[in-house]
Automatic annotation (TrEMBL):
Compartments, as annotated in UniProt: Plastid, Chloroplast
Species assigned in the record: Juglans regia (English walnut)
Regions of compositional bias (Low complexity) in chain numbering: 16-39
Subunit record text: Monomer.
Protein name (record): adenylate kinase
Amino acid sequence: MFPTSTFSSLHTTNVTPTPSLSSLSTSSLSSSSSSSPSSSLSLLQSSCIPRRHLRSFCAFRDTQLRIDPKSKGLKVTCSVGSEPLKVMISGAPASGKGTQCELIVQKFGLVHISTGDLLRAEVSSGTEIGNKAKEFMNAGRLVPDEIVTAMVMTRLSRQDAKEKGWLLDGYPRSFSQAQSLEELKIRPDVYIVLDVPDEILINRCIGRRLDPVTGKIYHLKNFPPETEEIKSRLVIRRDDTEEKVKSRLEIYKKNAEAISSTYLNIVNKINGNRPKEEIFKEIESLLLQVQKDRVEMTNPGNIIPEIKNLKNQDYWRGIPTKLNNIPHSREIRKYFYTDVLEATQRAINDGRTRLKVEINIPELNPEMDVYRIGTLMELVRVLALSFADDGKHVKVCVQGSMGEGALVGMPLQLAGTRQILEFMDWGDYGAMGNFIKIGSVGSKEVDEQDDIFVIVAPQNAVGNCIIDDLKAMTDAAGNRPVILVNPRLKDLPGSSGIMQTMGRDKRLEYAASFENCYFFRLLYYAGTQYPIMGALRMSFPYRYELYKRVDEPSGKEKYVILSTFPERPDTDEVNDAFLGKPRNKTKEASGIWGFLSGIF
Ligand code: AP5
């Protein structure tokens, strides 16, 4: 960051004034990875390409990845080695973009391209561009698109940005700037938006100071300079007055939504009103995850095992539509079975042993009239057969009737389940009885040869608590995986009268010891089941993804991603994301947007 026109010779390796406007040409730009060496990988036509990978397909469709539908097998061409990261960071003035960029560059070595810095360097060098930009900047207004866009394109086309990857800060700042990038097929892997409340932003700008020697950003209160010597040379940016900050903020808000709409599938809103180290930690883990996905994508050895496990499926196509058409089509059911299977396999391969699948599509949501036990059974069969195919001994367990005397019984949802399981078609290969056995819940069900336990919808019933039996069973299972499919382990205080070995706290703690490897839930207005407003999905090891359902003019519908979360978001966080509000703001769930209250 550099002060406007205060210094005449400030340059860093990333900030070089552009010679003249006339020398800028976007046609000279080449696709950033066009020169990368490539290798081919043939995949079976019916193979299922994991969702994460597909996202990368979209992001890099023009550069390193080609699918040739004419070839007999799907031919995927991808670059050898890992492509450098491409990151965009956005946020209101003083949301901390520059501060986070310093940390990102230190850790990931990306080329930092800040339009603010580039423009300030032009201004201080007195170039043609600088002279044009100066009046706009000093007034807190946006510099005309053609100036900024040409400057950014030139910088992006330089070799270092192609080789090391880039971190674009402060561009695009308008819909037309975003469109310029789209036209040139320049897309980031991830679009980070820092969320900070307005009043904090103004205070940050007023207290901001810059070190003209190192370019480091300070704040009189938040990050004071380390020494008196540094303090004495600090300068104030010309556009950091309260009045100009307010105008910049206004302009930012006007444009933000239109820009975000260009990057809906890769946007990640991050709460920027926290200590900078904490913010960076979240950004760091996000970027590491993106890098990891890309390595998987470009390393055939990593793709094949997953594909092997996902037999006879089409590749991921986003959240399926028409989920309110009931009963669900076979295709939709298959989609979800595969989605759950993928996530569960990844979690088990990762060494996780206490897992939970929570899938609440209408046919699997006991609160809905359309609940179908057959769908739950099919899901369990897909899971069990897949593990059995890998040579594992799977025990599929359904809790038996519980209680005594007048309290004897079992949850309605599970009545008859065991018989259905026994009569189901388990294939002609003799899996049932050899690799798959059916049992109940309790320590006695655990045999030495069992490798994995799948427990069907374990639940507390009024008067009876399943947790004690479940705990005894998991104790006996030791470190063998136990997967709960749609458990309902909420404590029922009314279940007194029956001796329970554990107290309430312990029971809750035990229930919480199972981690989600898969979560899917449709979102509705409170108290309704129509229309579907969106969906929340998590597939191990990835983040919770919040989608909004959008009706298209053609009459079709689609799901667009609004935000992602490291943990399951609460109702307020979901509401805020729908409203485009900063995450940390406390708000009451009210009005029509109170629709998500009580869903979790
Ligand atoms: P630019 O320099 O990009 O300004 P900006 O977007 O308004 O952002 P800032 O640099 O003010 O803030 P920042 O988010 O980087 O925050 P920082 O880390 O410094 O652009 C300037 C001008 O150039 C524009 O107004 C426009 O005229 C022109 N321009 C630029 N790009 C353009 C484009 N694409 N099109 C047209 N015109 C364009 O932090 C702020 C303060 O907060 C610091 O003091 C810092 O120490 C402190 N702080 C940071 N993080 C924290 C934290 N977590 N907690 C407490 N304090 C913190």
